[in-house]
């Protein structure tokens, strides 16, 4: 009987393990987490669809957590070698290195993006995909993050951000920046929307 129990335990879905990890991290530091649970598959796929799989530059993911959006990027066709995963939580970094051994995992603060990436990128990024809890931060912090992201990206590359809020995480009227929004993703819990910002 103990053998059957251990076999059953080993077949436990990774998704449940990820949810437990997320919940534990959220309880410890709620303002550092974008969500209580990992992003749903539909939300992750919606974010990934804005990234060109045929690009050549790095794809930076901010706050990948356990890698729900990372998995959607890989499924979309983005080569793991192009991925630069910026994660603050050291245990999530270890998990990401195990799951995505060809990606570059950077343990650091995404809100200090210039300092975190200063010696990491060899070329301008093709996209920045963010799972950060932007709406929990002051607007000046959000604006600095987007400004630093644009400085690291090729012209017209997408900065992709999701939010559960009904208002955009970054104002739609930024000078010289085009803004696009997805339909609200009702199948995600809680419902979310994806915002895409580009600077020509």
In short:
By secondary structure, this protein is of the alpha/beta class. 35% of the residues lie in helices and 16% in strands. Strands 3-2-1-4-5-7-6 form a seven-stranded mixed β-sheet, sandwiched between helices.
Would you write up a description of this structure?
Residues 43-184 form the Ribosomal RNA adenine methylase transferase N-terminal domain. One of its GO terms (molecular function) is methyltransferase activity. This is Methyltransferase. Keywords: Methyltransferase, RNA-binding, S-adenosyl-L-methionine, Transferase. It comes from Bradyrhizobium aeschynomenes. This protein has helices at 2-10, 14-28, 41-48, 68-76, 90-99, 113-117, 139-152, and strands spanning 59-62, 83-87, 104-107, 127-130, 158-163, 178-181, 193-198. It is an alpha/beta fold and 200 residues long. A seven-stranded mixed β-sheet has the order 3-2-1-4-5-7-6, sandwiched between helices. The N and C termini lie far apart (63 Å). Mean pLDDT is 84; it is low at 1-14.
Q: Helicity level, as a percent range?
A: 25-40%
Strand content: 15-25%
Uncertain runs: 1-14
What structural class do helix, strand and pairing data support?
alpha/beta
Could you say which overall geometry the principal axes of the C-alpha atoms support?
globular
Average pLDDT rating: 84
Biggest sheet, strands in spatial order?
3-2-1-4-5-7-6
Provide the gyration radius in Å: 17 Å
Q: Could you give the count of β-strands?
A: 7
The helix-strand sequence is HHHEHEHEHEHEEE
Main beta sheet strand tally, sense and closure: 7 strands, mixed
Query: How many DSSP H or I helices?
Result: 7
Ends apart, CA distance between termini: 63 Å
């Amino acid at each position: 009987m103990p053998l059957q129990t251990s076999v059953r335990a080993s077949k436990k879905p990774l998704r449940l393990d990820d949810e437990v990890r997320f919940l534990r991290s959220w309880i410890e530091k709620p303002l550092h987490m974008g969500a209580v649970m990992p992003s749903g598959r539909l939300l992750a796929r919606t974010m990934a669809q804005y990234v060109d799989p045929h690009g050549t530059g790095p794809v930076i993911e901010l706050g990948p957590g356990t890698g729900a959006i990372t998995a959607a990027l890989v499924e979309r066709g983005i080569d793991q070698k192009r991925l630069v995963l910026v994660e603050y939580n050291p245990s999530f970094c270890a998990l990401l290195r195990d799951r995505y051994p060809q990606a570059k995992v950077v343990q650091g603060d995404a809100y200090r993006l210039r300092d975190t990436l200063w010696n990491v990128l060899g070329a301008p990024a093709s996209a920045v995909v963010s799972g950060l809890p932007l709406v929990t931060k002051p607007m000046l912090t959000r604006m600095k993050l987007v400004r630093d992201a644009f400085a690291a990206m090729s012209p017209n590359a997408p900065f992709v951000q999701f939010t559960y809020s009904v208002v955009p995480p970054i104002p739609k009227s930024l000078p010289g920046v085009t803004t696009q929004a997805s339909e609200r993703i009702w199948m995600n819990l809680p419902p979310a929307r994806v915002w895409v910002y580009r600077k020509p």
